[in-house]
Fold this sequence. Notes:
The protein has 361 residues and is of the alpha+beta class. Helix 2 (14-47) runs antiparallel to helix 3, helix 3 (55-79) packs antiparallel against helix 4 and helix 9 (277-293) runs antiparallel to helix 10 (325-345). The chain is built from ten helices and 13 strands. The longest helix is centred in the N-terminal third of the chain and has 36 residues, at 97-132. 57% of the residues lie in helices and 18% in strands. A hairpin with a 4-residue loop joins strand 11 (297-307) and strand 12 (312-320).
Amino acid sequence: MNKFLQQVYFGNSVQDYLISIGIILLVLLLNKIVSRYVAHLLCKLLKRQWKAFDEQTFVRLVVNPLSIFITVTVSIIALYRLRFPPQLNITLYKYTLQQVFEAIAIVIQIVTFIWLLLRMIDFIATVLERRAALTLDQNDNQLIVFFKDFVKVVLGIVGFLMVLHFAFNYNVGTLLTGLSIVGAAIALALRESLENLIASFVIFFDKPFTTGDTVKVQSVTGSVERIGLRSTRIRTAEKSYVTVPNKQMVDSILDNISQRSQMRAEVNLHIHLQTPPARIEALLADLKGHLASVREVHSYTVLFNDIRLQSFVVWIEFFTLPIDNTQFQSIKQDLNLFALQTIEKLDIRMAAEGQGIAITP
């Protein structure tokens, strides 16, 4: 038996073949169990940092990439016991077949390792999103999504550099030096994209607006639904979905309507010149009484504002605390209807100039 085990085929003994094959078969049979065990060990470590820890979700996310990574790593270690058969070590495009197989194995190992890290980032982002959902600040949720995407991009670049270095023995330092020159040219070509990327960081840290705010930038007004690496998505009142580059969101004059301390409305009534002063006084008193009865109105001014060649001007201005826009428009509508009803009740004629009621929000 010992003589059979010591027989050599293709440069390796039967015993070495059996040991390597046995190790690979063993890891194939036990990889799920081992990966779950390792995942549970990681759970215990992470539970110390987060009390609200979903162990089932974590295991479901990491068990498959962890299983493949363990299988590939152990298989590579087991095959390193064997010498590559000289008969098969042919040359393909300046690379031997042994080098090609080693490069493929290393690439698979690095890819599965990066895949495992990406799954862990997804889980960490999920935990942070659940915690952020408990707060009123919606900016936390968008910040988590932003940095999750950003870290994934960085990991992808690191994985690519690892493949070049470990699988193909490429000098990454030389590559980075060369890329610095090429990168300058690319940076000029992609200047607008880089400006938008930098502007996204400005938005997240300076916080001129956050997700859920109603903003007006240039000719676009709507609610911010998402802040991305390159652009901001805004849902307008017409329910259209507008994409605005982040650079414009930072460089343009932006009105954050949600951050207004008060909301303002203005009404101008043009009264006929033959209207007696007593009726104007009665109109002013009724208008003041109406505004005083509206609970949402914080302050108001009702004033006989001007005497013009063709009309008397009654000027109305009121402020409310920040409220829903639909409710604010309803208050303005009620005021307009009350003004018309009062003018009719007092038998007041409107001037030829400005037959309607001018409203300036």
